Amino acid sequence: MASNAGNTPLILDGILFDQFRHDNGTEKRVPIQCRFKDSQGNLLEKARKMTRLSGSQQQCVAPKSALVEEKARLELSPNGVHWQDTGHDVHFYPGPRVTGVNPTYGVTKK
């Protein structure tokens, strides 16, 4: 689940995030990208770079979305050209909104 206001961090657990290697066998850090598509296949926003947390975890930040109580499909790519459907949907919900503050003036404590 992600707020439709955006910037919700999503932690992805998986395997083969660290599958890319140099010819000498050392790990090659390839920045994986994520993107979201609505039910009609339209992109919610441009692709975003994911943050590597470990060899089996990546973090993708959900974009701002007009979707409310709907879902979007998550896709990943190691190069921005070839995209893989993860088979997982992200459900967007309306985030909290501040509609007022009371009292509107006064002294605050530290």
Description:
The protein is mostly beta strands and 110 residues long. The chain has a single domain (2-93), classed as Sandwich (Immunoglobulin-like). The chain contains no helices and eight strands. A five-stranded mixed beta sheet has the order 1-8-7-3-4, with no helix packed on it. It has a three-stranded antiparallel beta sheet with strand order 2-6-5, with no helix packed on it. The radius of gyration is 18 Å and the shape is flat. The two termini are 35 Å apart.
Provide the fold topology.
Elements: E1 2-3, E2 8-13, E3 33-37, E4 48-49, E5 51-54, E6 57-62, E7 70-77, E8 84-93
Parallel strand pairs: 1-8
Antiparallel strand pairs: 2-6, 3-4, 3-7, 5-6, 7-8
What is the annotated CATH architecture? Sandwich
Supply the CATH class: Mainly Beta
Rg is 18 Å
User: How much strand?
Assistant: 35-45%
Structural class: mainly beta
Q: Helix and strand string, N-terminal first?
A: EEEEEEEE
Q: What do the pLDDT scores average to? A: 87
Termini gap? 35 Å
CATH topology: Immunoglobulin-like
Overall number of structural domains: 1
Largest sheet, in brief, is: 5 strands, mixed
In the predicted model, the low-confidence regions spanning at least 5 consecutive residues are: none
- Beta strand count: 8
Total helices: the number is 0
Tertiary shape: flat
The helical percent reads: under 10%
> Strand order, biggest sheet?
1-8-7-3-4
